[in-house]
Amino acid sequence: MMNGTWKVDARDGKLAMAHIYVAFVALALGGLAGLLQVLVRSGKFELPAGISYYTILTTHGVLLGLVLTTFFIIGFQFAAVSRTAGTLSDRVRFWGWIGFWLMTIGTAITAFYILIGEASVLYTFYAPLQAHAGFYIGLTLVVVGSWISGFAMFAHYAKWKKAHPGQVSPLLTFMSVVNMVLWLVCSLGVAATVLFQLIPWSLGYVDRINVLVSRTLFWYFGHPLVYFWLLPAYMIWYAIIPKIIGGKMFSDSLARMSFILFLIFSIPVGFHHQLVEPGIDPAWKYLQVVLTFMVVIPSLMTAFSMFATFEMYGRSKGATGLFGWLRKLPWGDARFFAPFIGMLFFIPAGAGGLVNASHQLNQVVHNTIWVTGHFHLTLATTVVLTFFGGAYWLIPHLTGRVMTKAMNRLAIIQTIVWSIGMIFMSSAMHFAGLLGAPRRSAFSTYGDAPQALEWIPYQIAQAVGGTILFIGIILVLIIVTNLAFFAPKGETEFPVAEVAEQAERTPLVFENWKLWIGIAVVLILIAYTVPFIDMIQNAPPGSKGFKLW
Amino acid sequence: MKTQLNTSTPKAKVEKEPALKGTLASVLFLGFFLIFTWVSVYFLFLNRL
Ligand code: HEM
Ligand SMILES: [Cu+2]
Known about the structure:
The complex is a heterodimer of chains A (about 550) and B (about 50).
Chain A: H1 10-42, H2 53-85, H3 90-115, H4 133-163, H5 171-202, H6 211-239, H7 241-245, H8 252-265, H9 282-294, H10 296-316, H11 334-357, H12 359-365, H13 369-399, H14 405-434, H15 450-486, H16 513-537
Chain B: H1 21-47
C-alpha cells in the first residue's frame, strides 16, 4: 500500500461524517421539494396554504445543487486525503471543523430566509430578483467555510510533499487538491458579485445593480461548479472502482492529466450559459464555446480509461469476444453497480451537453425544461449515484460497521428504482423541452395555447418519474441511516486502486501548480478581460430590485 | 518458414500492450452517439429557422 494508512483515523472520520449527515438531510428535504414540483407541474395538484412554487423550487435547487453537493464533496475529500496522505494534524482538523460549522450555520441562515418566503430567487439568485440580505449572507458563510476547508486540505498536502520530497503525491490527495483549487478560483467570482453587488444592494446601500456583470460573475462560477461536482465522482471512478472490481487502474498519469485539463478548461467558459444574452459580443461567446468544447478531451479520456479498466479486468478473468468482459463485472455489488449506472447515464448526459453548448442548438433548448432534464442526468444521476455508491463503503468505514447482504440488495434495488424514475422524468423533460416547455414555471396552459397543451402528457410522465425517484430517495435514506447507526459492527475497507503494471510512471510535472494555475489564469484573462470591461463601460442604467413572488 | 530460434532481442523484454478491442468499439459507439444526437437537434434547428 502507498504511504497512506489503511484506515481513516476516527477523529478524521467524525469530521467527514458530520459533512455527510448534513448532505443527506439536504437530500431528504430537497427531494420532498422535488416531489412537490413534479406534482404541481402535472396540473393535478396545487400547493396548499398559498406556498409559492418558487419557494419550493428555490429550496430544491439550493439544498440539492449547492448544499448536498458541497457537503458530501468536502466530507468525502477529507476522508480521502486522510486515507491516502495520512491522518490529519490537529490543526488541519480544527480548521476543518471551523469550515464545517461556518458552512452549516450559513446553510441554516439561507434556508431560514428561503422558507419564510423572503428569498424565492432560485439557486442562481439572478439579479434583478432581490432576496433578503440574510439569504446572501448565509451563502457567503457557506463559501467562506468551504475555502477554509480547502486551505486545510492544501496544508495537509503541503505537509505530505515536505515529508516526501521528489515523490508523486497519492492520487486521491492530488485529485482533491485539484478540485479545491478549481473551487477556490471559481468561487472568487460568485463571492465578488455577492459581496460587492448583491449584499449592498439588498441592504439598500445602493439602489441599482449592473445585471449583466452580476450574471457574468455568477456563470464564471457556475460552470466550474458543475466540474466541482463531477470531479469527486471521477475520483471514485478512476481511483476506487478498479479496486472494487478487483482490477487495476489503467493509468495514473492519464487520470492526473484529465484532472489538470478540467482545471484549465472548465473556468473560462461561463458564456456558454449566456449565449442568448445581449451585451456580450458574439466573438467572445464564440471563443468561450471553443474552450468549452475542449473539455470533450478529458471527458473522452475518462470514458476510454473506464472502458479499458473494465476490459482489462474482464480479460484477466478469461473473458473472450468483443464484449465478453462485461459479464465478468461484479453486478451484484452495489459499490460498483450504482456508480456504473451513473457512468451509463453520462452518455446521454454528455450528448445533451454538446447540444447545450453549441450556440445555434442552444437556441432550440435555452431555458426550456430540456436543460432541467440534462442536469438531472449529469448531477442528479451520474454524480449522485456515484456518491451513493461511495457512501455504501465510506459510511461503514467511518462508523466501524459493515454493510449487510440485505442492505446491499436494497442498494441494488435503489439504483434500479432511480434509473427507472430518471428515465421517465428526464426523457419527458428533454422531449417537452424540444417542444418549447419552459423550465422554472408552475403548471399553466397559457390560455389553452395548442403548444402548451402538447406538453401535458410529458408533464404527467415527469410526475410519474419524479414520484418513483422520490421512492429512490426514501430507499437511499434507509440504507444510509442503517449504515450510520444500525449496521453490524465490523471493519469495512476504504478501497484505493493500484496502477496496472504496464502503465507508464507518473511524471512530477502534474504537480507543477505554478504552471497549471498560471495557464488557467491566463486563459481566464483572455476569455474575460475585454468583454468584462465592455460590460462596465457600456453599461445601461442599473436595475432596481424586484420581488416577484 | 524457418524455425525461429529463441533469440531474445538485446532490448530487454517486449512490452505487451493489453488487447482493448472492446474499449475501442465502446468509445467509437460513444462518439457516434454524440454525433447522432448533435445532428438530430441541428436538423430540428434548421427546420425551425
Ligand atoms: C425526487 C427526486 C427529484 C425530483 C422529483 C426532481 C424534480 C425537479 C423538477 C421538476 C425541477 C424543475 C422545476 C422547474 O424548472 O420548474 C427540478 C429542478 C432542479 N433539480 Fe431536481 N428533482 C429531483 C432530484 C434532484 C437531485 C437529486 C438534484 C441534485 C443533486 C436535483 C437538482 C435540481 C436543480 C439544481 C434544479 C434547478 C432548480 C432551478 O431551476 O432553480 N434534483 N427538479
Ligand atoms: Cu456550463
